[in-house]
Design goal:
The chain is an alpha+beta fold and about 90 residues long. The chain is about 50% helix and about 20% strand. A hairpin with a 2-residue loop joins strand 3 and strand 4. The radius of gyration is 20 Å and the shape is elongated. The model has no long low-confidence stretch (mean pLDDT about 95). It folds into two domains: about 40 residues, no CATH class; about 35 residues, no CATH class.
Length: about 90
């Protein structure tokens, strides 16, 4: 997405990094008049999602990883990953 000079100037004045802009665009809610909003509510929801994802990844790590064997849209089997299995 291209940024106008006006947007660049306001972003710098307000201390909003390019990473913040990209994150808001990815995870924000669409508002009126071409706005994307990543407010306190969205931030708290996203933090909850990230905490749930962290718990899941830690469980998978405890297993050494998880392997899913699939063919197209069908899951054939799953198993815990070990280094000697590929």
């Amino acid at each position: 997405m291209n940024k106008t000079r006006h947007a660049e100037a306001r972003q710098n004045q307000r201390g909003i990094s390019s990473n913040m802009v990209q994150y808001a665009l990815r995870h924000g809610k669409e508002g009126k008049a071409s706005r994307v909003i990543f407010g306190k509510k969205e931030a708290l929801e996203r933090l909850k999602e990230l905490q749930e994802e962290e718990r899941l990844v830690k469980k998978m790590l405890d297993k050494g990883g998880v392997v899913v064997v699939a063919d197209g849209e069908s899951i054939i089997t799953t198993y815990n990953y070990t280094e000697h299995q590929h």
